[in-house]
What we know:
Layout: H1 3-18, H2 24-34, H3 39-46, H4 50-68, H5 77-81, E1 96-99, E2 102-105, E3 126-128, H6 142-154, E4 159-163, H7 170-181, E5 187-192, H8 199-210, H9 219-232, E6 235-240, H10 260-271, E7 277-282, H11 287-295, E8 299-303, H12 312-317, H13 326-332, H14 337-351, H15 355-358, H16 368-378, H17 383-394, E9 399-400, H18 401-407, H19 412-424, E10 428-433, E11 436-441, H20 443-452
Parallel strand pairs: 3-5, 4-7, 4-8, 5-6, 6-7
Antiparallel strand pairs: 1-2, 9-11, 10-11
Helix pairs in contact: 1-2, 1-4, 2-3, 2-4, 3-4, 6-7, 8-9, 17-19, 17-20
Protein name: ATP-binding protein
GO molecular function, one term: ATP binding
InterPro entries: AAA+_ATPase, Disease_R_plants, HTH_VMAP-M9, NB-ARC, P-loop_NTPase
Amino acid sequence: MDITDVLNLAEALIFMKTGKHLDHLQKAVLQGTFEGKTYTEIAAETYQSEGHVRNTGSELWKVLSAELKEEINKSNFRAVIEKVEFKNFSADNVGHVTVNNLNFCRESKLATTGNQQPEKKTPKQHLNLGDAPEITAFYGRKEELATLQNWILEKNSRLIAILGLRGIGKTTLALQLLEQIKPEFDYIIYRSLRFSPTPETTLSNLLEIFSPSDIPNNIETQICQLLEYLRQYRCLIVLDDVQMLFTAQKLAGHYKIGGENYQRFFKLMAEVSHNSCLILIGSEKPREIANYEKENKYCRSLVLSGLGIEAEEILRQQNLSDESSWESLIEIYQGNPHWLKLTATLIHELCGGRVADFLQFEMPIISDSLAELLDDALERLTEAEKSTIYHISQAAEPVSLGQIFQEIQMSSTDLFNVMHSLKRRFLVEDIPQDKINFFTVNPVFKAYGKKDG
């Protein structure tokens, strides 16, 4: 018995019992188990949490055990299933299946009498969050939530990018938004692109949510089919970690080889009429988004800055003392929630949780954990970007493009492209003054850059 027979048998038995076809994850669990893969490996391949994969497997083993009258688990699944004699069957048009000379009939609902009205079905909401992180706390962001809600529900935006430095709270904001507006949608979907899947893989994964069978291989057909579903249903799709689609050590927004069709997909999401919304989350702004939002009222982007006074709640939950010093700590670490949490751990371990004692030292102090985050961002830069950041970091005051040009050996074209790229990575900030734009580096990166330079 090969994997096709295994899936056909499981499809038949599950359909007989539940009236439902196998979904993408159930098929992946069955195939992965048949091939000897672990739940961890299956989870990585399907972009699901290991816990969710285990639960799916557990439910499958229960149904199959009951139907085959034999105890089935992950360890013995292949051995048991290979002993089964199975007659081919189509679950769409047949009401029974024969396995080991036993007939299984699909469970039927009670027939309605002449006096009974058919039960009205209400549309079912589909929540498919994949490996979305759990929100344990949410701070502030009322204005940002209101803006996003307005764009989606009132302005009918089709393509939205939530952007900003790593740790600033982009994913948390998006998941909080989903929680608030999910009653307005038929499908709520979250996927992370952290492992840089190909466009074909991502689109197949999305299509399988709507219809597990007949997934086209052609990218154009995949996009067209998905757009048809997005017209038929109102869907809110979140694609996180978009920066992982881009090549490191190249200017921001250059797609990896084979990933160019993401650009076509995003473009059509903004241009083609449909009832849904795609939210992109990332620490690099896709180059095409800037063009789309100028030309297309259905495309928008939101760049997150740090928290203000709301960040005090983070320090309160971290049980730090010296509340009068919290504002200074928040300002030093730019109100970045993750940076503050990492720094709070350092304050606890070395200063007994006393913020005032910590602030006596030269700021900002970069913990090893925070340095790893900063390194991740800096390692994606080109050599020209690193050189430019270093030179800006050495300046005591913000500098103009002319001043930067005098300091480094680079053509005007290269300088403009480098600065544009650094802005799309949110590593430099511009400060308009007397009709001249001056530039500075994020203070935490500036301090780290000086140390590294």
